[in-house]
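Input record (one chain):
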Amino acid sequence: MSDRFVTAERRPDGVAVVRLDRPRMNALSSALLSQLADEVAGLVADPPAAVVVWGGPRIFAAGADISEFIDAGTGRPSPEVARSVGRGFRAALDAVAALPVPTVAAVNGYALGGGCELALACDFRVAAEDARFGQPEILLGIIPGGGGTQRLSRLVGPARAKDLILSGRQVDASEARAIGLVDRVVAAAEVLDAATGWAASLGRGPRVGLALAKAAVDGGADRPLEAGLDLEAGLFAEVFGSDDARIGIESFLKDGPGKAKFEGR
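The corresponding structure, as predicted from the sequence alone:
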């Protein structure tokens, strides 16, 4: 594969910036998704403090590469081709969601369809003032297939998710912030700095504790309350085996809260 559409740059502050770069619209082709999954696998093998996903200063991602839905033999879209494309989305976006570190989507321009779904796979979203979000698949006669019906409804609620999915309409950054789809809105030129700064501040926390806290929230979201509490109880006990827990507790008892220097173990 000669074209690189995804790169991961590790910064001195411990943040890895995963950059999408497939002109002109960062369409999420099978090749791009495969590269995204590979880059994420590398980050899992050697975790940074936090991860920012960015599509560049002009656009986050306009969605799937629609041309890939066409069966080469028949010249028509087909369920078999859709299943193959869907598997690529599932593998890449699930990998992003499962990263054991804080993740922030830095959104300039459009995050539509698969692009919106990629942003949803991150823990947080920072958007430019002129950014736009949407799940416009219904306008093509299809439905979201990269997690949009599930992650969006869990984030903003079923009714708001249905509003966006059934209408295919786009929302600006202000409305996205109001419904909980976006966490922070900044000037377009400040998106990457805002996202990396936030990610770096989160990444300075205890690595084991951050990973287990994220696992508790994500793993308990779809379980009955009792099962979620059981999950939390187990992870709560587990974290006490980390060096950072010892450092944090000793620092609190000696110097009070917020002064611990964690070692990431």
